[in-house]
Amino acid sequence: MLRNARQSGGEKSERFTACAICACPEIYEQVNLARTWFMYLLWPFTAGSHKPSHLISDQTTPTIDDTYVSLVSAHTERRSGFRSDLNRRHGYRCVITGVWDGEHRPASSDQAWAILTGAHILKRAIGVFTLDRVRISLPAATLNIIRQYSGIFEETIQDMARLVGDPSTGVMLQGDVHTVFDKLKVYLEQTERENEYVVKEVSSGWWIHRDVLDRTITFRNHAAPTRDISLPNPHFIVLHAAISQILHMSGASEVFAQILDLYDGAAGGNARILKSNGNPVHQLSSMMSALYISASLESAA
Hints:
Blueprint: H1 5-22, H2 27-46, H3 64-80, H4 82-89, E1 100-101, E2 113-114, E3 116-120, H5 123-126, E4 129-131, E5 134-136, H6 140-149, H7 154-158, H8 160-163, E6 170-174, H9 175-182, E7 186-190, E8 196-201, E9 216-218, H10 234-250, H11 252-266, H12 271-274, H13 280-300
Parallel strand pairs: 1-2
Antiparallel strand pairs: 3-6, 4-5, 7-8, 8-9
Helix pairs in contact: 1-10, 2-6, 2-13, 3-4, 11-13
């Protein structure tokens, strides 16, 4: 947390993190602080990105979670034209690989193409979604940590519900890159130049092609001057990058994966249904409690 604080929110974030650590001189206090960050910051960024291996098949019957995500995506698309705006802004190309969106590739081009999708930078982390009577929200503790740890303005955090379909919250990516970006395996490292980033990945594996890794990209509005489309919010991008690195450096991503896999097995593959609604921190607590009870019963037997 401390190592990535300055990248996430500058000197203010670094001071906040250092003070939180120094205020916990005893081991049990440090454990409680780590648990708070683990559950209230890192888990909300991870929740929803896990997909059990036995659910990946196209032949699998869609779950409640699949249906809900599809409805939210369709609802956002209808409401704001999210994908269309991102496509126009990025010139109908994946911002990381440069691959064309299939239906917009020039007839004269022989370059590769794919069906591009709009990726929300922080959707699972701090977005608040309302669709009919279904609502996903975060506890005040999570929003407070995000406020202190990042450079995101207070007004922006409070306005995230409205911003879900705004172009400033997303980038256009091809499917495989979208997946690893969503899973916080690939991130964009900010440079000293405005709207310029370098493509990076966590060091646990080869998540993207070597030709793409360390590529420098610059965001600009390709639809200008006829259409004013906001660029990705740099605060969202640097927070996404910081959380990606924290998850890897701390080993928290492996712990979350183990919890989810174990719970999938204990729940008959229905962990994703649990995560469809409600407070993600309560969901993690429920999963961990269920696993603890299960382990206790097995030990007793």
